[in-house]
Design a protein that fits this description.
Serine Threonine Protein Phosphatase 5, Tetratricopeptide repeat, elongated
């Protein structure tokens, strides 16, 4: 853990002179000991040519090690590598696999990208309903973070697929701090009679 911290300190120059080569040395030590965060950071440095010559294949190797340990940033990043065919043979099925793992951890970027894969039918059977479900989950994740613009972006994905979908209406109401119309007549909300009176 200390080696990973030292890598971060030198990579970003916290209290010391910024030095990618020194950062890479410390990340490598921790990564070789199985530290997932260090493995991910090492992958980033290979990806962007920081402290090493740019090497997407090597970046993928380290991302994979971290992703297999459940490190969500590596899972999402590995999905991107597979979707783009960067450092690996392009494989939409594998991209979906890793986006799903990130999404299952509640990671909004995984949810969004998995939704896009369902929308386009890349790596999965095309399914607008499942895409909408993922975009809705992303909207919920954005709202939990207090990221209204992100929630609006998720809502746009839903309305582009189906402007009248109930999940879109619900998300829209949540974004604007209102009770969704479809929720007003649900049993147990206390609004059943009110809803009937206005019909």
């Amino acid at each position: 853990m200390a080696q990973t911290i030292l890598g971060g300190i030198h990579r970003f120059g916290f209290g010391v002179e910024q030095d990618n080569e020194v950062a890479a040395k410390w990340f490598r030590k921790a990564a070789d000991q199985g530290n997932a965060e260090a493995q991910f950071n090492l992958g980033i440095m290979y990806k962007y040519g920081q402290g090493f010559k740019h090497d997407s294949v090597e970046a993928v190797r380290w991302y994979r090690k971290a992703a297999e340990q459940g490190f969500w940033m590596a899972q999402f990043g590995l999905g991107v590598f597979y979707e783009l065919g960067d450092g690996v043979k392009q494989d939409y099925v594998e991209a979906v696999k890793w986006y799903r793992k990130a999404a299952e951890q509640g990671i909004v970027w995984g949810q969004i990208n998995l939704g896009k894969m369902y929308e386009s039918g890349k790596g999965v059977e095309q399914d607008n309903e499942e895409a909408i479900n993922m975009f809705y989950e992303a909207g919920q994740s954005y709202l939990k973070m207090g990221h209204r613009e992100g929630a609006l972006s998720a809502l746009e994905h839903i309305t582009n697929l189906n402007p009248n979908h109930p999940l879109g209406k619900t998300l829209n109401a949540q974004i604007h701090g209102e009770e969704a119309e479809d929720m007003k007549s649900l049993p147990g909300t206390g609004n059943e009679n009110t809803s009937k009176q206005h019909r």
